[in-house]
Design goal:
Structural class: alpha/beta
CATH architecture: 3-Layer(aba) Sandwich
Mean pLDDT: 93
Bound molecules: hypoxanthine
Number of strands: 9
Low-confidence stretches: none
Number of helices: 6
Radius of gyration: 17 Å
CATH superfamily: Nucleoside phosphorylase domain
């Protein structure tokens, strides 16, 4: 498990930069190509990861690499523009550093977004999915090692990792906005290689609707720290075992950019409603 001191040092450095701001209520991670939501924020401060001691820097070019503080729909938020993935060579601790810092800063709700391959034959690239559950297929966990009791219990419950009331709220808001929103299970893999047809078939049989290379480490850490979690996948490519198509990064980013606008509108509406 992450050393609490490392997170506390990072949080001290962040707090020094935002001491004039109210405590953030909601933390949001922007996935690949989903940066558009940042444009909806009334920005009050940005804190580059490079200026935070021991904060891992993302090696992914499509990610900006900073925390952004501001208001969204009247709610005080902090956004992570860029995250750390296992496929970059980071361990689970570094993959969770952002959410642990946001939890220490005071958020009560964590909204995670990602780009993912679509395993459900009835859906299409471009569809949005609210995550109702996940399968951690990475073989890793951020909770191995000595437990830090102040953060959470040794054996945290995962029976409702994704908050059912927030899922309902997201579906209601999607309906009100006329945005199609599927609901499904996300399977998290390490990557960076994409899936073979046999792996794709297996994930479908295991009950997954979407596959991606992020999210599960962060959600485990978030639940360990008792945050409410809401997750969205932007389904960027159809990943079907009997008609596999290549999905290079450009396609993933382009598709995420296309549907990212709707996801941004939806998250803004959900956050605004959290206040109500
Ligand atoms: N597989 C894994 N990760 C992904 C995919 C995929 O097909 N698309 C976007 N991220």
């Amino acid at each position: 498990m992450q050393k609490p001191k490392k997170v506390q040092n990072a949080v001290i450095a962040i707090r020094n930069r935002i001491s004039h701001l109210p405590t953030p209520e909601v933390g949001i991670v922007l996935g690949t190509g989903l940066g558009g939501l940042a444009d909806a924020v009334e920005v009050q401060a940005t804190v580059p990861y490079a200026e935070i001691p021991d904060f891992p820097r993302s090696t992914v070019q499509s990610h900006a690499g900073q925390f952004l503080f501001g208001t969204l729909g009247g709610v005080q938020v902090v956004m992570q523009q860029g995250r750390n993935h296992l496929y970059e060579g980071y361990g689970p601790d570094d993959a969770c550093m952002g959410v642990r810092c946001m939890a220490e800063l005071g958020i009560h709700t964590f909204i995670v977004t990602n780009a993912a391959g679509c395993l459900n034959p009835q859906w299409d690239a471009g569809d949005l999915m609210v995550i109702t559950d996940h399968i951690n297929f990475t073989g890793r966990t951020p909770l191995a090692g000595e437990n830090h009791d102040a953060w959470g219990p040794r054996f945290p419950d995962m029976s409702q990792a994704y908050d059912p009331a927030l899922v309902r709220l997201a579906l209601q808001q999607a309906d009100a906005l006329g945005v199609r929103l599927e609901r499904g299970v996300y399977v998290g893999v390490t990557g960076p290689q994409m899936e073979t047809p046999a792996e794709t078939r297996m994930f479908k049989r295991l009950g997954a609707d979407a596959v991606g290379m992020s999210t599960v480490m962060e959600v485990i850490a978030a639940r360990h720290m008792s945050l409410r979690v809401l997750g969205f996948s932007c389904l960027t490519n159809k990943n079907l075992p009997d008609c596999m198509e290549e999905a290079p990064l450009e396609v993933v980013i382009a598709q995420a950019n296309k549907s990212g606008g709707n996801l941004a509108r939806l998250i803004a509406a959900v956050v605004a409603e959290m206040r109500a």
